[in-house]
Design goal:
The complex is a heterodimer of chains A (270) and B (255). Chain A is of the alpha/beta class. Chain A has helices at residues 16-29, 46-49, 60-64, 70-73, 99-112, 126-133, 146-162, 164-167, 184-188, 195-202, 214-222, 233-245, 261-265, and strands spanning 3-8, 34-38, 75-76, 83-86, 115-119, 137-142, 174-182, 205-211. Chain B contains seven helices and 16 strands. Classes of the chains: A alpha/beta (270), B alpha/beta (255). Chain A binds chain B through residues 99-100, 103-104, 106-107, 150, 153-154, 156-158, 160-161, 164, 167-168, 200-201, 203, and chain B through 1-6, 155-161, 174, 176-179, 192, 194.
Chain lengths: 270, 255
């Protein structure tokens, strides 16, 4: 049985697709057969981040409508042969998604894959609701600013009331926090919410902090998930996230910002 | 993966319905009085559900044929949905007509709180009307009995979620900004209260709100409210209790 992960936030532009691509790649790199699905019908992006946009023939909606088989639509990643991408349709809208259709596709994927990552669109409409409906785990992606935190909180309410697990009275979806675009220097200046501020409102299990990093943008533009950039802080942070999700203990990094060269040399205080 | 939505579910809910209290078993007089009442507000009474209260009648040992009464009420446009305080014979008739019998409070426990309705509980001499219809809006407290249970919520209440309790409401997790919690009785939040909290929503002015850390967007007791802008900064972020005194919300720190 596969574990279904939804990457969600409510608010747009916080890094859902970047996160979906990174953790899907991370899970596959660690030997787990993983599928990542783009639920953002009409605003297809995931294929760009994963650099497979030129190989898209069939999409998620085609599979739901029975116009293509799942195997025809799944694209194998060129960097990792355990990662498959199910792209969204660019020409349709979210109304093309049906609960029955999504359920059928996920059911079929569940038999073949170990992890299924659902990249949710922004908002709390149909696309987002269907992306989370079947989930077992939720990665709530939040930026350290008040509107993003509020939207995440709203999303958590939906996760606990509108999912299949909630409707069936099963064990609730496991919710994790991913704090992205975190800039410790701006937190110190009081321009950004700190981890504690965010946790005071959301109080979730923290899976990781992804520092604001130029490498994210350049990786996206190059179509290579940032997790493959092992030198970048964001790449390492995502690797930590995947490890923690799989049950490894890793201390949280990037909360306090870069240590100066001299401080590192003389073992400055934490 | 076919239809996964459930076919049905049971929920508890509170409804308002007028109660017809009879003081006299004279069918002709009842019919006449009813017509007069209905003519005053035909739209209000049209197809209205009705609960029939026969306690006074039976206290005076005046017998009444419940089947006849039901027929009369249906004829003038009511839907009798319950009987209260009937004798054995009347209850039997009600059962035959598939009308539920309120047995819970038959044994003399007062169902009407407050003194506004007193004249109807203790009938006065013959000058008083044959039938009285208690309007639901006249005194909500009269219909909603004092809550005896409480609702416990241990999950965090997230932004956009609403919780309604027809009793006291006890919450052990935080209530987020943008969430709304409502109770007909008291509200206890043993955590941070950031959303809206409305206690005594049916007009119970003695309801109170208790919380560990007051950061609420809005607090209200029996309709009197304050928004966070009006909240005293001294009690903000403090454990407080909130209650109503002469139509003013008092926010008092719990030492």
């Amino acid at each position: 049985m596969a574990r279904i992960i939804v990457v969600t936030s409510g608010k747009g532009g916080v890094g859902k697709t970047t996160t979906s691509a990174a953790i899907a790649m991370g899970l596959a790199k660690r030997g787990h057969k993983t599928a990542v699905i783009d639920f953002d019908v009409g605003l297809r992006n995931l294929d760009l981040i994963l650099g497979c946009e030129r190989r898209v023939v069939y999409d998620f909606i085609n599979v739901i409508n029975g116009e293509a088989t799942l195997n025809q639509a799944l694209i194998r990643d060129k960097n990792c042969n355990l990662l498959y991408i199910l792209p969204a349709s660019q020409t349709r809208d979210k109304e093309a998604l049906t609960q029955e259709g999504v359920g059928k596709v996920l059911d079929e994927l569940t038999r073949e894959f170990q992890y299924i990552v659902c990249d949710s669109p922004a908002g709390i409409e149909k696309g987002a609701n269907l992306a989370l409906y079947f989930a077992d785990d939720a990665f709530v992606v939040t930026n350290p600013e008040i509107s993003s935190v509020r939207d995440s909180d709203r999303m958590l309410g939906i996760l606990s009331s509108k999912s299949r697990r909630a409707e069936r009275n099963e064990e609730p979806i496991k919710e994790y926090l991913l704090l992205t675009r975190y800039d410790p220097d701006r937190v110190k200046l009081g321009e950004m919410l700190s981890l504690d501020d965010v946790q005071e409102i959301l109080s979730l299990q923290l899976l990781g902090i992804i520092p604001e990093s130029k490498s994210v943008l350049s990786a996206s533009n190059a179509g290579i998930p940032v997790i493959l950039d092992e030198k970048s802080e964001a790449g390492q942070a995502y690797a930590d996230v995947v490890a923690r999700y799989l049950g490894e203990e890793r201390p949280h990094r990037f909360i306090d910002g870069k240590q100066g060269f001299l401080r590192r040399l003389f073992g400055g205080k934490k | 993966m076919l239809n996964t939505s459930p076919v049905l579910e049971f929920k508890s809910s509170t409804f308002f319905a007028p109660i017809l209290i009879l003081f006299n078993n004279d069918m002709a007089a009842i019919e006449e009085t009813l017509h007069a009442k209905i003519n005053l507000a035909p739209e209000f009474f049209r197809d209205s559900p009705l609960i029939i209260d026969l306690r006074d009648l039976n206290k005076q040992n005046q017998d009444l044929d419940f089947t006849h009464l039901t027929q009369l009420l249906r004829r003038v446009g009511f839907f009798p949905v319950g009987i209260r305080g009937g004798n054995d014979q009347q209850n039997k008739q009600a059962r035959a007509l598939s009308i539920p019998i309120d047995t819970v409070r038959e044994q003399g426990a007062p169902i009407i709180a407050g003194n506004v309705q007193k004249p109807e509980i203790n009938p006065q001499p013959s000058s008083q009307p044959v039938a009285t219809v208690v309007k639901p809006s006249a005194n909500p407290a009269a219909i909603a009995p004092v809550a005896v249970t409480s609702t416990l919520v241990t999950q965090p209440i997230r932004s956009g979620q609403r919780i309604y309790a027809s009793s006291d409401l006890i919450i052990t997790s935080q209530v987020s900004a943008g969430a709304e919690i409502m109770a007909e009785g008291n509200i206890h939040v043993y955590n941070t209260l950031r959303g809206r909290a409305l206690a005594g929503v049916h007009g119970n002015t003695s309801a109170r709100i208790f919380c560990f850390d007051l950061q609420a967007e809005l607090i209200s007791i029996a309709g009197d409210y304050k928004t966070s802008e009006d909240l005293n900064k001294q009690t903000y972020h403090s454990p407080v209790q909130i209650y109503l005194q002469d139509h003013a919300l008092i926010i008092k720190e719990i030492a």
